[in-house]
């Protein structure tokens, strides 16, 4: 158990809908990262927050957005969902040095 | 551009050593990582190495880094059935991890 929690574990929704994925980092970690894992694209970095502020942005679509709240939990919002958004979405957290990233169990999103 | 490459499969006999290889392209990466993913599970940080090191050993795991060739390897000694998983190599670049496609380790009895 990494100490990073993600909810929900599974999500099934229809095209065009909007969903919110939630992540709670390990106790004391200030950084939260979001990654997408799909069969065709592999693992891709989406976005990082550090203590509430966006720090780095990767291959995140404009339909996707994220935020980190004062209690350090983070949410990833996915809107206007398409079939190709079906994937595993991982959250990771790290401490001040950002050297070690610890991953949550992931949320499996299925868009039908 | 940034690209991390790994072979997709490795098959070894139980008890033998497994060596999983990886090449990366970003010479400014300060850390290189190995993660393990078991079926239906998340990503487990196995080990990482600082770019100014050549080798790091942690119990059954040995990481070798050849910075000149941008080559990273993970050796698992005495491979067990519980080592069956996908192993991902990753490099850090501008606060993000850039990932290989993963090597599926298959253990033969």
Q: Structural class of the secondary structure composition of chain A? A: mainly beta
Q: Topology as H/E string of chain A?
A: EEEEEEEEEEE
Kindly estimate the percentage of residues of chain B that lie in beta strands according to DSSP: over 45%
Strand portion of chain A: over 45%
Quick check: average pLDDT of chain B? 92
| Number of helical regions of chain B | 0
Radius of gyration of chain A: 13 Å
Biggest interface goes to: A-B, 22 and 19 residues
Strand tally of chain B: 11
Mean pLDDT of chain A: 95
Report helical residue fraction of chain B: under 10%
Per the principal axes of the C-alpha atoms, what is the gross shape of chain A? globular
Oligomer: heterodimer
Work out the helicity level of chain A.
under 10%
Order of helical and strand elements of chain B: EEEEEEEEEEE
Explain briefly what this protein structure is.
The complex is a heterodimer of chains A (112) and B (109). Chain A has strands spanning 5-7, 10-13, 19-24, 31-38, 42-50, 53-57, 64-68, 74-78, 87-94, 102-103, 107-111.
How does this structure look, described?
- The complex is a heterodimer of chains A (112) and B (109).
- In chain A, β4 (31-38) and β5 (42-50) form a beta hairpin.
- Chain A is an all-beta fold.
- Chain A has strands spanning 5-7, 10-13, 19-24, 31-38, 42-50, 53-57, 64-68, 74-78, 87-94, 102-103, 107-111.
- The mean pLDDT of chain A is 95.
- In chain A, the strands form two sheets. In chain A, strands 2, 4, 5, 6, 9, 10 and 11 form a seven-stranded mixed sheet that branches. In chain A, strands 1-3-8-7 form a four-stranded antiparallel sheet, with no helix packed on it.
- The relative contact order of chain A is 0.33.
- Chain A starts with a strand and ends with a strand.
- Chain A is globular, with a radius of gyration of 13 Å.
- Chain B has 109 residues and is mainly beta.
- Chain B contains no helices and eleven strands.
- Chain B has strands at residues 5-6, 9-13, 18-23, 31-37, 43-50, 55-58, 61-66, 71-76, 85-93, 96-99, 103-108.
- In chain B, strands 2, 4, 5, 9, 10 and 11 form a six-stranded mixed sheet that branches. A five-stranded antiparallel sheet of chain B has the order 1-3-8-7-6, with no helix packed on it.
- Chain B is globular, with a radius of gyration of 13 Å.
- Classes of the chains: A mainly beta (112), B mainly beta (109).
- Chains A and B meet through β5 and β10 of A and β5 and β10 of B.
């Amino acid at each position: 158990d990494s100490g990073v929690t993600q909810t929900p574990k599974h999500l099934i929704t229809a095209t065009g809908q909007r969903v919110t994925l939630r992540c709670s980092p390990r106790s004391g970690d200030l950084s939260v990262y979001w990654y997408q894992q799909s069969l065709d694209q592999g693992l891709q970095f989406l976005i990082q927050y550090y203590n509430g502020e966006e720090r780095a942005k990767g291959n995140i679509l404009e339909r996707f957005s994220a935020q980190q709240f004062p209690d350090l939990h983070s949410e990833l919002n996915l809107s206007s969902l398409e079939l190709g958004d079906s994937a595993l979405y991982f959250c990771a957290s790290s401490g001040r040095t950002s050297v070690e990233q610890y991953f949550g169990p992931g949320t499996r999103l299925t868009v039908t | 551009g940034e690209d991390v490459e790994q072979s997709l499969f490795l098959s070894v006999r139980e008890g033998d050593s497994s060596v999983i290889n990886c090449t990366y392209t970003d010479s400014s990466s300060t850390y290189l990582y190995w993660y393990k993913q078991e079926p239906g599970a998340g990503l487990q940080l196995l080990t990482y190495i600082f770019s100014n090191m050549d080798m790091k050993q942690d119990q059954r795991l040995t990481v070798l880094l050849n910075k000149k060739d941008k080559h990273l390897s993970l050796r698992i000694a005495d491979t067990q059935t519980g080592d069956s998983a996908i192993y991902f190599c990753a490099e850090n670049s501008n606060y993000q991890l850039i990932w290989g496609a993963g090597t599926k380790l298959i253990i033969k009895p």
